[in-house]
Each structure stands twice: as structure tokens, then as C-alpha cells.
Description:
The complex is a heterodimer.
Chain A: H1 2-13, H2 19-31, H3 33-51, H4 57-67, H5 71-101, H6 105-111, H7 141-144, H8 149-243, E1 244-249, E2 271-277, E3 286-293, E4 298-306, E5 310-311, E6 314-320, E7 328-336, E8 342-351
Parallel strand pairs in A: 1-2
Antiparallel strand pairs in A: 2-6, 3-4, 3-7, 5-6, 7-8
Helix pairs in contact in A: 1-3, 2-3
Chain B: H1 2-17, H2 24-40, H3 47-63, H4 73-94, H5 110-124, H6 127-138, H7 143-150, H8 154-183
Amino acid sequence: MNDKTDDLIHRFLLDEVSEEERSQVEERFLADNDFFEKVLSIEAALLDQYLLGQLTDEQRKRARTLFESSPGQRREVEFVSELIASLRATDSANRRTIATTGEPESEETLSGVHPKEETISIDSEVASPARAFPPVPTGWKNSLLPFNARCWLVVLTICLVMMSSILYLYTKKRSLEAQRIAAEQKSRESREKLLEEARRKAELSKQLESEKEKQRRTEEKVEEKTEEKGELTARASTRRPDRLTSILLTPTTFERGGNSKALSLKATSRQIQFRLALDESQLYKRYSLQITTFDGRRVWSKDAVDASRIKKGQLALTLSTALLTDEDYRIELKGLSDNGEPVHVADYIFKVRR
Amino acid sequence: MESKTSQTVFDKLFRLLEPDAQSIDSGFRRCRLKLVKFFAWRHCEDPENLADETIGRLLKNVRANQEISADNPYSYVYAIASNVFKEYLRAKKKGGVVIDIELVRNLAGAAGTDDECKKQCMEQLSPEKRELLARYYLDDAERDEIAQEQGLSLNALRLQVHRIKYGLRHCWEDCRKHSDRMRN
Lengths: 354, 184
């Protein structure tokens, strides 16, 4: 039963199941924690097989689709690859250490002992005093009895020299390791400083961008306001033609036989502004105005018009066109002298046709 | 008040879905992991976002008084997840799927830091666990032998190795995060 389940899970992971089987597995692993753990461990085993090249071509393709489909899956692959590489590195380092200490050739030549007759091994993992002396094969015991003590001393010295070399090398390795760590520490500190600088720079750039953005928005707002104002002005000015017409009138001169200058006015205007041109060399403090028809009917008048109303040599007065009918009109402008006596300044003539 | 009600709904839901969990948080994490794997095993490009989407909808429906069967609460979760998956496929066809791009740490010192973290974490394992990992990966002909020696089935051995790796991975990630924080 377990094998069947394992097989189903295996096929599920490699996408070799029907839709029904898929739903069955999915609903089960969601609801059953033990089953979920099982699927996870089979997935992990599948990943191991994938990385160690133990799958068939077809299975490898399907496994690749599974393990390369998302960043999370790719991280898993990366982790296990690194783990295997790390284990291999540790294992080969251990093997190298054993191989280095177990090579007897050079030492045996020095001692003058036949390599086959004697083995000298220094095991770094085991520090037993008994192993400092080489093992003696029993068959040779009798022939070694008259062995020269000096040879033993030489062998012992060689062993001591080897041990001290190993110790020296180990100490050297530790100090190099410490130096490496110190160098890495320095390099890390420099990197930290650089990163800090880069971060500050980025912050300043960000602030600058933000200020520029604010400035741009302010300018946009100003432009919008200006446009709005312009629109309002335009609307106001477009309304004026319907209600107010502004007309410049120059003084009329009466000449015998001459043609009078008259201006026609559109009847659609509701208001009319007459701008009376004045001779600025002859200015009074106050003026009076009167509009009459040619048959003497007074239409409008105004006394005591202050000279401050004269702008750029023009005196403006605004009237409702309802006052004006189909007639010929004359505007008489008089200036008021210092003694209050009115002085004729000019006449302005115009005709109204509705 | 509203946040308290939301918290109550959250707690009730994950207590229902993962009654054996030691805490609500661990229950939530387990549920999320299951959903992430659900979408990953369907070869979705962004399983984590899809899992979060599923949980979001689940919470929303529960807050709107959707009843979930106490006998098999995950059947409702499965239904939501399947819908989310169908929408993902439709969006993918239209070309609207967002692809998550992972940042690669390319700092000059990253490799050195990684080696240190690996070494540190391996040293934290007991010698037996270290040896088990080494034998499991470097001498695969002996897997059946290892299982026999440990008195385990091959599946149980795989599960044990998987748990050791899980712990090791968390150790590496925590160590890297710590190193990154120190660097920054």
C-alpha cells in the first residue's frame, strides 16, 4: 500500500497522473499533514535524484519543469546543490588530510627500512602513544632482536620531526586563517562605508527629485490658474459685445459746406461707452456733459465730471442704448473754469439707426 | 472594533484548518505552505502570490459569514484555490501574468559570507546528522544500508534527511539575513 502511495506521489510530482488522481492527491495533502510531509520528502528525494543525475531523460525533463517553474522552486534547487557541493568539499578536504599524513615513501627511504616490511602512519585524528611506534610484523621478530639502537633513535627522531612539522603547518594555517578573516573584516567595513555613501547619495537624489516634482506641480498649478484667469477674462470679454460697445468719438468741427463726420451704432448693444477724445493741452479740473438731439431735446447730462476720469486723453461715459432712438445726437463737452463758468470744449456728433 | 473582529475570524479559521498547530501563526504558516506547494506543483510562476490571493478570498468569504464544514474544512480551501488557478491560466493566456524576478546578491563579499554561514550552520549540526547527510549524498549506493543501520525504512530515512535539510536551510537563511543586515 505504501509503495502504491509513493508511486502515486512520484507520478503526481512528475505530472504523470490523470486529473482525477491529481485532485485526489491535492485534496489529501491539503487535509492530511502526514501525507503532506510524505509528499514533501518524496519531492526532496526527487530533487536529489535530479541533481545527482539519477533520472531517465523523460523524468529529468519533467523534473526540470517542476523545479524551474518558480523562484521558490529554483531556490530549493540552489540550496541542495550548495549543500552537496559543501559536503563534497568537506569530504575531499578530509580525504586529502588523510592522504597527506598516510604517504610513507620519503620517510621510509631515510630510515633505510624496506617499504614492504614496515609501515609508518601518523593519524591526526588519533593521538595514542602506542601508535607512535611502528607495528612490527611477528615473523620478523627474531631478526630484529640484534637491531641497532641508533636506528631506533633515528626513526624516533624522524617521527618527532614529522609531528612538529605537522604542528607547525597547523599553526601556520590558523594564523593565515586569522589573517584572511581580518582582511575580510576590513573589506567588509569598506564595503559597508561604500554602501552607506551610496545610500546617502540615493536619498539625496530622491529628495532632489521630490523637490523638482514639487516645483513642477507648482508651476503646473500656476499655469492652470493663469489659464483659468485667461478663460474667465475671455468669457468676460466675449460677453461685452452683447452689452457694451465702446466707441471713440473725436470732436466734430463745423465747416461751411463741409461734411459732418457721423458714426453708425448697432442697435443690438445694450450699453454703449463713448470715449471722447480731448485736447490734452487744454485741460480743466472739471467738466460737464450733455447729450441732446438735433431738435434740442435733452437726452442725458452730467455735471462736475472730475478731470481724473480722463485717461490717455479720453473721457469715457457709459450709457444704456435704450436712451437712444433713431435720431441724430450731439454730445457737448464743457469745461468748468476756476470761477465756475462753463467753457465750451468740443462737440461730438453721432447718429442712431435702429 | 473592526480589527478585533477580523483577528477573531483569522484565529478561528486557522484553528479550524490546522487544529494540531502549536499556535495560530504556525497554523497559518502551514496552511500557506500547503497552498504555495499546491500552486508550485501545478507549475505556476508565482505560487506565493496565488497562495496569498487564495487566503485573502477565504478570509473575505468567512467574514461574510460563509460556513465552512468542520469535518473537512480544506475542501472549501481547495475549491477557492482551484478557482484562483483557473483565473491564473486565463490571465496567462491573455499574457497578463506578472512574473516575479528574484534579485541576485552580487556583492563581492557575498560568496565569502555564504561560505561562513554554511560552515557555521554545518558545525551546529550534531556529528551524527552531519555524517548522515554526507553519507546520504556522497555515497548513494549505501542509502539502503544507511536506512538499515538506522533501523528505518528508506522513506523514513528520506524524511529524516529532509528534516535535517529544512533546519539547515533556515539556519543558512537566518545567517545570511544577519550578515546582510551587518553589511548594510
